[in-house]
């Protein structure tokens, strides 16, 4: 913030616009600058307004912020999916062992039936 603004003590007011009214601290509602604070004349919409305007908050790289948020979300998703894959691999090992045991029992039962028929 410029040093010329430091003599204004009110939290809600900045330096006066050329129209003589102190510019209040406002918050942007635009998509590009959502939540970013600025000083702005309350008469900016009037015809022939001076339109005093000054950003208080630094410019943000919203695209970078969105990418960072997406990156964090993807990392969380990867972590969850990795745990699921590990769980499926463990379950697969257990099922393979059960399958081997059942296959062996089936082969033994078939052998007994064959032996019984041969007698």
How would you characterize the overall build of this protein?
It is built from 1 helix and 4 strands, in the order ββββα. With 119 residues, it is α+β, with helices and mostly antiparallel strands. It has one helix at 62-118; strands at 13-16, 22-27, 37-40, 53-55. A 4-stranded antiparallel sheet has the order 1-2-3-4, with no helix packed on it. It is rod-shaped and about 115 Å long.
SSE layout and pairings?
Elements: E1 13-16, E2 22-27, E3 37-40, E4 53-55, H1 62-118
Antiparallel strand pairs: 1-2, 2-3, 3-4
Order of helices and strands: EEEEH
Rg result: 36 Å
- DSSP summary: helix tally: 1
- Uncertain spans, ≥5 residues at pLDDT below 50? 1-11
Average pLDDT for all residues: 81
| Tally of DSSP β-strands | 4
Descriptors for this entry?
119 residues, alpha+beta, 4-stranded antiparallel β-sheet, 4 strands, 48% helix, rod-shaped
Sum this structure up briefly.
By secondary structure, the protein is α+β, with helices and mostly antiparallel strands. The protein has one helix at residues 62-118; strands at 13-16, 22-27, 37-40, 53-55. It starts with 12 loop residues before the first strand and ends with a helix.
């Amino acid at each position: 913030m410029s040093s010329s603004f430091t003599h204004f003590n009110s939290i809600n007011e900045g330096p006066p616009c050329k129209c003589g009214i102190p510019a209040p601290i406002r918050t942007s509602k635009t998509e590009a600058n959502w939540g970013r604070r600025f000083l702005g004349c309350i008469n900016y919409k009037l015809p022939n307004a001076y339109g005093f305007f000054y950003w208080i908050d630094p410019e943000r790289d919203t695209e970078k912020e969105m990418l960072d948020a997406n990156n964090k979300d993807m990392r969380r998703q990867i972590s969850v999916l990795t745990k699921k894959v590990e769980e499926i691999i463990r379950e697969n090992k257990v099922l393979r062992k059960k399958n081997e045991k059942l296959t062996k029992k089936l082969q033994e039962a078939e052998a007994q039936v064959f032996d019984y028929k041969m007698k």
